[in-house]
Amino acid sequence: MASQPHSSIPPESFSIISTLRYDPQIPAVASKSHADIYPYPKDSPYYLLPFHRDRLLNAATHFNWAKAIEFLQLDTTQFSQLLDKSISDQSKPWRLRIAVDSQGNCTVDVNPAAPCSPRSLFIPSADIETEAATQLPPWKLYLDTQPTEPSAFTTHKTTVRDEYTSARERVGITSLLDPVEVLVFNPQEEVMEGSITTPYFRRRSHIVDTAGSGSGSGEDGFIWVTPPLSSGGNAGTTRRYALEKGFCVERLVKVDELVDGEECWLSNGVRGFIRAVVVLER
């Protein structure tokens, strides 16, 4: 789709989307090892399934798509049964991209999911962080070279993705398989989000605005923070998970407070939680 003012994009030309992981290992790990930090339903192979339904419904409500809203009045069992029709081999992990248009038509694109440890799908804890540190090197997290204007298409995930595609191109990301991400920021120089992830930064707890949800407190005087939606980023499913389970709190993150080499976390609905390091000096 060619770039054009968001106000002029007709409803019939785009869909609302959510992307999630199907992984047959999730139920066993969720119920046995992480029952206290994983939301209902714990027996579903679809990662954070109700959160994805809610995300789509919130987007349909924002755009006032009556037929899409009607379609998305699905309970967890109905939603799971709908997705099951697209899974050809239930013994393997898959990446599902759910798209719903303004008329309530739903399509599900299925592709092999990138391999990851099942434990990376759960909010980081001390043992998970230790395991993660011994596995793959952290992703590199670059900062975009120009701001992105917040809009309904940054708050809600849709097929209108030109800003994110451009941000990735500006820092040289060529593939979704590359262990590289770009941080987008608004004209006020507030970090919004990553192009395909939610970021989390480690900050001293005494300077964190405690108005955010969740405790996120650390015994060492530090806390994990993620940018508030008021900065313009997406209401992601793993972001909601991290906030509800107290891994982090919301707080403004300004571009000028990022530190070259600082360690952070990223997350999304396909890969879970990913270690990353900020790279400001290329």
Topology overview:
Elements: E1 16-22, H1 26-32, H2 49-62, H3 66-71, H4 76-84, E2 94-100, E3 106-112, H5 126-133, E4 139-143, H6 152-155, H7 162-170, E5 180-185, E6 191-194, E7 198-204, E8 222-226, H8 237-244, E9 249-250, E10 263-268, E11 272-279
Parallel strand pairs: 4-5, 4-11, 8-9
Antiparallel strand pairs: 1-2, 2-3, 5-6, 7-8, 7-10, 10-11
Keywords: Lyase
Enzyme class: lyase
InterPro entries: Aminotrans_IV (IPR001544), Aminotransferase-like (IPR036038), BCAT-like_C (IPR043132), BCAT-like_N (IPR043131)
What does this structure look like?
With 282 residues, the chain is α/β, with parallel strands linked by helices. It has helices spanning 26-32, 49-62, 66-71, 76-84, 126-133, 152-155, 162-170, 237-244; strands at 16-22, 94-100, 106-112, 139-143, 180-185, 191-194, 198-204, 222-226, 249-250, 263-268, 272-279. An 8-stranded mixed β-sheet has the order 6-5-4-11-10-7-8-9, covered by helices on one side. A 3-stranded antiparallel β-sheet has the order 1-2-3, with helices on one face. A hairpin with a 3-residue loop joins β10 (263-268) and β11 (272-279). The protein is globular, with a radius of gyration of 18 Å. Residues 210-217 have low confidence and may be disordered.
